[in-house]
């Protein structure tokens, strides 16, 4: 077990951030176009869950990882 606290903390954090968005289009090759909240443009990601267009989803590392709740997007600045 490592005694370096920074390395232990970093090991707990995910490699890629989890983002929420809405699927704009679904393609036949198993990908989808997702409009991420707070982002400038849409992102084409893998869609292994075969989520339909209009669904709100979680995206992590270029892949749809699950369904997201239909809640309003709120940006809080600190």
Strand order of the largest sheet: 3-2-1-4-5
CATH superfamily of the domain at 14-67: Nucleic acid-binding proteins
- CATH structural class of the domain at 14-67: Mainly Beta
| Quantity of strands, as a count | 5
H-E string: HEEEEE
Q: What shape does the CA trace take?
A: globular
Instruction: List segments where confidence is low: pLDDT < 50 over at least 5 consecutive residues.
Output: none
Short description:
The chain is mostly beta strands and 78 residues long. The chain is 10% helix and 38% strand.
Lay out the secondary structure.
Blueprint lengths: L4 H8 L5 E9 L4 E6 L5 E5 L9 E5 L2 E5 L11
Antiparallel strand pairs: 1-2, 1-4, 2-3, 4-5
Task: Describe the overall structure.
It is a single chain. By secondary structure, the protein is mostly beta strands. It has a domain at 14-67: OB fold (Dihydrolipoamide Acetyltransferase, E2P), CATH 2.40.50.140. The chain has one helix and five strands, in the order αβββββ. It has a five-stranded antiparallel sheet with strand order 3-2-1-4-5, with no helix packed on it.
Top keywords for this entry?
single chain, 78 residues, mainly beta, OB fold (Dihydrolipoamide Acetyltransferase, E2P), 5-stranded antiparallel sheet, 1 helix, 38% strand, globular
């Amino acid at each position: 077990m490592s005694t370096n606290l920074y390395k232990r903390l970093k090991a707990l954090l995910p490699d890629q951030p989890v983002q929420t968005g809405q699927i704009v289009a679904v393609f036949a090759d198993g990908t989808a176009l997702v409009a991420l909240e707070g982002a400038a443009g849409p992102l084409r990601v893998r869609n292994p869950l075969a989520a339909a267009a209009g669904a709100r989803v979680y995206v992590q590392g270029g892949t749809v990882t699950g369904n997201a709740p239909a809640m309003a997007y709120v940006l809080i600045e600190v």
